[in-house]
Amino acid sequence: NAGVTQTPKFQVLKTGQSMTLQCAQDMNHEYMSWYRQDPGMGLRLIHYSVGAGITDQGEVPNGYNVSRSTTEDFPLRLLSAAPSQTSVYFCASTVGTGYGYTFGSGTRLTVV
Amino acid sequence: AQKVTQAQTEISVVEKEDVTLDCVYETRDTTYYLFWYKQPPSGELVFLIRRNSFDEQNEISGRYSWNFQKSTSSFNFTITASQVVDSAVYFCALSVAFWWGNKLVFGAGTILRVKS
C-alpha cells in the first residue's frame, strides 16, 4: 500500500509560472485535502474534496485551483505563482469523519 | 468556527525530563474529534492519537499520555522521560463533521527540542 503519494518533492518556480502538484491515494478514501505549512502558522487548509466531482474552498484558497475527476487523484494547480506561495504543501486523505488523516510526504515549493 | 490554540511556540528540555504540550480548542459542535500529529525533522506528519468528544478517558501509550478535559476544552499531551528522538514539531488538530463532509483544523504547532 503506497498510501498518499505526492509529486514532485521539490520545485522551484519563477513568478508568474503555473504548475500542478500531484496527489494520489490508493486507499479508496472519499475525503482529500490540500494544506500549506508555513513557519509559525501550522497547516492551513487550501481546498478539500468529499468525493469525485465535489470540491470546496478551505481557509486560504486564493491562487489555487483543484478538481477531483477520480477518487484516487486530487491535483492542486497554481495558476500564476507568487513568492507568497512559497511553502510546503501537504496532501491528505481520510476514509471519513473522526478517522485519522493520512498525509503525503509533502512538496517543498519555492517561488522566486 | 473551529479553532485550535497551541500557546507554546517552542519548548526546550533536557533528556529524561517530563514535558507537557498544551492544546486548547474551540468548537460549538457536540461531536468532534481531536488529534495529535508529530512532525520530525524529516518532515513527514505522523499520526499519534485520536480522541472523540464523548470519550474523556485519559490514554497512555508507553512514554506518551494524553489528558482530555471537556470542561476546559483542552487536550494536553505529556511525554515522560523525554528522549532526543522526541525532538519534533507537534500539532494538535480538531475535526468536526458537516453535512457535506468534514474539515481538519490545526494549531500552529509546538517545537520540542530535547537536549542530551
Summarize the structure.
With 112 residues, chain A is an all-beta fold.
Give a written overview of the molecule.
The complex is a heterodimer of chains A (112) and B (116). In chain A, 0% of the residues lie in helices and 50% in strands. Chain A is built from no helices and 11 strands. Chain A has strands at 4-7, 10-13, 19-25, 31-37, 43-51, 54-57, 64-66, 76-78, 87-94, 102-103, 107-111. In chain A, strand 5 (43-51) and strand 6 form a beta hairpin. The relative contact order of chain A is 0.33. The model of chain A has no long low-confidence stretch (mean pLDDT 94). Helix content of chain B is 0%, strand content 58%. Chain B is built from no helices and 12 strands. In chain B, the strands form 3 sheets. In chain B, strands 2, 5, 6, 10, 11 and 12 form a 6-stranded mixed sheet that branches. At the A-B interface, strand 4, strand 5, strand 9 and strand 10 of A face strand 6, strand 10 and strand 11 of B.
Biggest interface, residues from each chain: A-B, 29 and 25 residues
**Tally of strands of chain A:** 11
Q: In angstroms, what separates the terminal alpha carbons of chain A? A: 36 Å
The H/E string of chain A reads: EEEEEEEEEEE
- Count the DSSP helices of chain A: 0
**Rg for CA atoms of chain A:** 13 Å
Morphology of chain A: globular
Structural class designation of chain A = mainly beta
Largest sheet of chain A: 7 strands, mixed
Which geometry of chain B do the CA atoms define? globular
Number of helices of chain B: 0
Mean pLDDT of chain B: 92
Mean of residue pLDDT values of chain A:
94
Helix content of chain B: under 10%
Q: What portion of residues of chain B belong to β-strands?
A: over 45%
Computed over alpha carbons, the radius of gyration of chain B is 14 Å
Oligomer: heterodimer
Please describe the topology of this protein.
The complex is a heterodimer of chains A (112) and B (116).
Chain A: E1 4-7, E2 10-13, E3 19-25, E4 31-37, E5 43-51, E6 54-57, E7 64-66, E8 76-78, E9 87-94, E10 102-103, E11 107-111
Parallel strand pairs in A: 2-11
Antiparallel strand pairs in A: 1-3, 3-8, 4-5, 4-9, 5-6, 7-8, 9-10, 9-11
Chain B: E1 3-5, E2 10-14, E3 19-21, E4 24-26, E5 32-39, E6 46-52, E7 59-61, E8 64-69, E9 74-79, E10 88-98, E11 101-106, E12 110-115
Parallel strand pairs in B: 2-12
Antiparallel strand pairs in B: 1-4, 3-9, 5-6, 5-10, 7-8, 8-9, 10-11, 10-12
